Amino acid sequence: MIWEVFRQEKTGQYHTHCGNVHAPDREMAKQFAAIQHGRRKPTNSLWVVPRDEVGEIDAEDVAFGGTTDKAYRWATTYKTTGEDAREVVESEDEQATAERQRGDD
Amino acid sequence: MDLDTVKDRAGPREFSPADDLPEEYRKAATRMIEFHANSEIMGAYLERPFIRQAPSIDRKLACSAKVQDEIGHGQLLYRAAESLGVKTREEMLDDLANGDGKFLNCFHYEMTDWVETPMIAFFVDGAAMRRQATLRRTSWEPYAHAMDKVCFEEGFHVKHGEDILRELMSGSKKEQELTQAAFEEWWPRIIQFFGPTDDKSTHHDFAASVGLKQQSNDQLRNAFLDQYIPKARSYGLEIPDEPRIRELDDGTYEVEEGDLDWDEFFTIAKNDYEPGVGQINGRKAAQEAVQWVRDTIESDATAAGGHAPQAAD
Ligand SMILES: [Fe+2]
Ligand SMILES: [Fe+2]
Question: Which residue from A48, B67, B232, B247 could staple onto B237, CB 3.0 to 4.6 Å apart?
Fold first, then answer.
């Protein structure tokens, strides 16, 4: 049985997928995950999930967006006067990064 | 974990569903996040009519996107609240429908004219964002994670709201006057967004001591005034004479509490304010009207297989 492994580096961070292990049951999966994925990289917590329980939908099944112009949805579209609040600037920066990664511009 | 340990460890994103937390913590966090979730939903319902009333296709698209975002924020937050194990999402939604669920003061008022939209989308969303940015460091990890996504999206709401304000305030004299009038009506409510001063706030001390809340009402109100008074002025809005606001030597502000209507505020807090009751019932009716959609989805979850759903983006 295959178990997908998600590692969290520090308390409060996200668990992100880092690989998978072969194991007959949940207990063994946790042990193997700890050995294979929790040793060299900083690890605070690991999740193991049976692969069969993972649902997947990919870009072939569905259009995830990014193909239609939705400029109205982005902070970067609107020009403002004066200095914006710190957190608004931060949000706009995060959005600009996401926009670039999606290749909208 | 006992309460003293919680207080000792209470740092940003410190506690997750894997931790065994005392009931006091879980109840306080549930109350706070449920309030936040309810507010997202009720705010969305307040703005919904403006998808129809928007004066241009661009505004219509943006308003519709914003309302969609806010409903999404509510959903994220109900999950963060539910993960505390005190109340289920179903219970929270039922409480909101039957008038027991509490939510932000500003969303108990009616909004009828387009000139009012920046009062919500710019000032209330701006105020909310000041607060939400600090909550990315709350001690309940699922709440902090929800705030990551909410803050990512909110920049658009605030800037779109500001753009509406800019347009109105550079429009005809009549538009400017109507916008100023709307501002005067909403300004005291917006200041009350942050609640009463710290010494009158009932829940703050505990929430702060366990790391749920990062800043006090007074700190947040100050941070808001500091940022948004200059913004309002830069678009030609005049700050109303009341409530009196004094700028102190250290750059902070002092609001004359007595100038604000606290009877109304606490009537609202009990869900007894008439227009607010209308909003609660309005949402309840809308929920009931689409009950058949939920029923269809839940009774026949597999029948949808076979055709690809359109992902929202
Ligand atoms: Fe929101
Ligand atoms: Fe918003």
Answer: B232
